[in-house]
C-alpha cells in the first residue's frame, strides 16, 4: 500500500485537462514562511516555562550536547529540564499538530466538505471508547499487555480502537451502499453516534476515580510527553505527512465532482482508501498519546486555504506545518497561563478555535455578498 501511495496516485487520461486544472502553486514560498515560523515557535516554546531559559543558554545547552563546546556556565537543572521534559514535549506537539492538520485537510478534500475532520470516520470516537474501556477495567488486569507495552497500555489500546472503528466505518459503507464518499460520510455519522453512546454509558457507570481519569484523558494533554512517546508517534505521523501530498493531484480533480474526477482517471476507491489509511495512522497515534484535541484539523486547513489558495499540494503541506505551529503555541500557553497548574490543551484549542472558526465563516460569507 505504501509503495502504491509513493507513486503517482492516479493515471490521468487527459494531460491537457490536468494541466488546466492545476492551480498556481505557492508551495515553496509557503513552506519557507511556515517553516521559519515553526522554528521560531519551537525555540520560543523550548525557552518558555516555569524555569525560563534564555536564547544564549539554549545555544550553550545544545552546543555542549553536540560537542561544539567543552564546558558551559548554564545550570545543570536547566539542561535536564530542556532535554528530559521540555524538548520531548515540543517535539510531540509538532508531530501531533502536523498529523491532525494534514488529516483535516485531506478529509475535507475527500468529502468536499469544509467542516470535515477525523471525527467523521470514527478515529477520535473509537480511540476514546477503547481508552475508556481500559480505564474502566483497569490496565492491571491486562497482564500480557502490561508486559508488552508497560505504562502505554491505554495509548496502545486507543490506537487499536481508532483503527478498528475506522475499518468498521469503511467496510459498512461498502456493504450498505456503493462505497462512495456520501455513503462513507453517513456510515461515519451513524457509527460515531453509536460509539459515543457506548462511551457515555461506560462513563455513567464509572466511579469517581475512573470518571476523573476519563475526563482528563478526553480533554487532551501533552503533559506525559517523553522520548518514548515521541518515538512511538513519529513513524505513524511521519508516514502520513510524507505520503499524503502525493494524493494532492487526485484531490484537486475531486473538487470537480466524483463523476468528473473519475472520467479524468481518478480511481475513487483507491483514493478513498489511501486517504483514510493515512489519516487514521496520523490521528490515531496522536489521539492515543495525547487524548482528544479538537479544532486543529478543522480550523488550520481553512487558514491555509485562505492565505495560500486551494491547491491541495500547498494545502496539505501547509496544514501540517501550521498544525504544528498552532499546537506548539497552544501547548506553551496551556502550561504557562495557569502555572504551576496546567490547563488541558483540548480546552484551550476549543476556546480559541471556536471564535476563530466562526470568524472565518463570517468572512467567507461577507466575500460572497
TrEMBL record:
A Pfam family hit: FecCD
Gene Ontology BP terms: siderophore-iron import into cell
GO molecular function: transmembrane transporter activity
PANTHER family: ABC TRANSPORTER PERMEASE PROTEIN MJ0876-RELATED, FERRIC ENTEROBACTIN TRANSPORT SYSTEM PERMEASE PROTEIN
GO cellular component, one term: plasma membrane
InterPro entries cross-referenced by the UniProt entry: ABC_BtuC-like, ABC_transptr_permease_BtuC
Family recorded in the similarity comment: Belongs to the binding-protein-dependent transport system permease family. FecCD subfamily.
Residue spans crossing the bilayer: 32-59, 80-107, 119-137, 149-170, 182-206, 227-247, 275-303, 315-337, 343-362
Keyword annotations of the record: Cell membrane, Membrane, Transmembrane, Transmembrane helix, Transport
CDD domains found in the cross-reference section: TM_ABC_iron-siderophores_like
Main location as per UniProt: membrane
Subcellular location: Cell membrane
Membrane topology: Multi-pass membrane protein
Official protein name in the record: Iron complex transport system permease protein
Keyword Transmembrane helix: yes
Keyword Transmembrane helix: yes
Amino acid at each position: 500500500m505504501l509503495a502504491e501511495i509513493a507513486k503517482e496516485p492516479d493515471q490521468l487520461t487527459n494531460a491537457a485537462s490536468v494541466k488546466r486544472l492545476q492551480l498556481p502553486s505557492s508551495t515553496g514560498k509557503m513552506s519557507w514562511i511556515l517553516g521559519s515560523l515553526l522554528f521560531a515557535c519551537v525555540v520560543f516554546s523550548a525557552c518558555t516555562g516555569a524555569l525560563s531559559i534564555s536564547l544564549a543558554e539554549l545555544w550553550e545547552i545544545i552546543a555542549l550536547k553536540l560537542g561544539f563546546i567543552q564546558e558551559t556556565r548554564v545550570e545543570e537543572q536547566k539542561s535536564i529540564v530542556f532535554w528530559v521534559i521540555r524538548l520531548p514535549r515540543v517535539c510531540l506537539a509538532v508531530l501531533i499538530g502536523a498529523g491532525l492538520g494534514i488529516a483535516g485537510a485531506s478529509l475535507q478534500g475527500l468529502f468536499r466538505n469544509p467542516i470535515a475532520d477525523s471525527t467523521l470516520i470514527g478515529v477520535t470516537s473509537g480511540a476514546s471508547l477503547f481508552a475508556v474501556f481500559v480505564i474502566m477495567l483497569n490496565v492491571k488486569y491486562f497482564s500480557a499487555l502490561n508486559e508488552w507495552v508497560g505504562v502505554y497500555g491505554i495509548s496502545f489500546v486507543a490506537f487499536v480502537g481508532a483503527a478498528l472503528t475506522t475499518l468498521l466505518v469503511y467496510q459498512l459503507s461498502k456493504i450498505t451502499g456503493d462505497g462512495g464518499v456520501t455513503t462513507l460520510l453517513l456510515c461515519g455519522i451513524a457509527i460515531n453516534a453509536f460509539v459515543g453512546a457506548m462511551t457515555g454509558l461506560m462513563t455513567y457507570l464509572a466511579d469517581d476515580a475512573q470518571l476523573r481519569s476519563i475526563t482528563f484523558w478526553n480533554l487532551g494533554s501533552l503533559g506525559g510527553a517523553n522520548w518514548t512517546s515521541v518515538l512511538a508517534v513519529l513513524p505513524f505521523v511521519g508516514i502520513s505527512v510524507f505520503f499524503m501530498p502525493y494524493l494532492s493531484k487526485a484531490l484537486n480533480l475531486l473538487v470537480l465532482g466524483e463523476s468528473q474526477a473519475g472520467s479524468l482517471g481518478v480511481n475513487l476507491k483507491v483514493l478513498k482508501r489511501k486517504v483514510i489509511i493515512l489519516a487514521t495512522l496520523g490521528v490515531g497515534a496522536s489521539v492515543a498519546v495525547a487524548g482528544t484535541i479538537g479544532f486543529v484539523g478543522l480550523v488550520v486547513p481553512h487558514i491555509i486555504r485562505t492565505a495560500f489558495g486551494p491547491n491541495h499540494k500547498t494545502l496539505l503541506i501547509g496544514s501540517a506545518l501550521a498544525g504544528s505551529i498552532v499546537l506548539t503555541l497552544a501547548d506553551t500557553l496551556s502550561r504557562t497561563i495557569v502555572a504551576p497548574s496546567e490547563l488541558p490543551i483540548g480546552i484551550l484549542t476549543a476556546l480559541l478555535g471556536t471564535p476563530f472558526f466562526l470568524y472565518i465563516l463570517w468572512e467567507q460569507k461577507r466575500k460572497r455578498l
